[in-house]
Amino acid sequence: xxxxxxxxxxxxxxxxxxxxxxxxxxxxxxxxxxxxxxxxxxxxxxxxxxxxxxxxxxxxxxxxxxxxxxxxxxxxxxxxxxxxxx
Length: 86
Ligand code: FES
Hints:
The protein is mostly helical. The protein is 37% helix and 6% strand. FE2/S2 (inorganic) cluster binds at residues 12-14, 42-43, 54-58.
């Protein structure tokens, strides 16, 4: 599902954070949920959009976006096998 989520889609309703913001954070080195939370503000503290303590319900979607974005950013695997002629 996260691969189908468009960039403008709000994935953290408590803070109004979009999928695009999460993807940008991942592309810029956020490699776990804590770093995504720190860099985007999603899923932590008091919700900017609601003024209440955050619900945390977006955490699974944040992780799914992390996995999907990381998978796309991974460079192609090269074949480093060495010839057995020696
Ligand atoms: S939707 Fe993200 S903390 Fe509630």
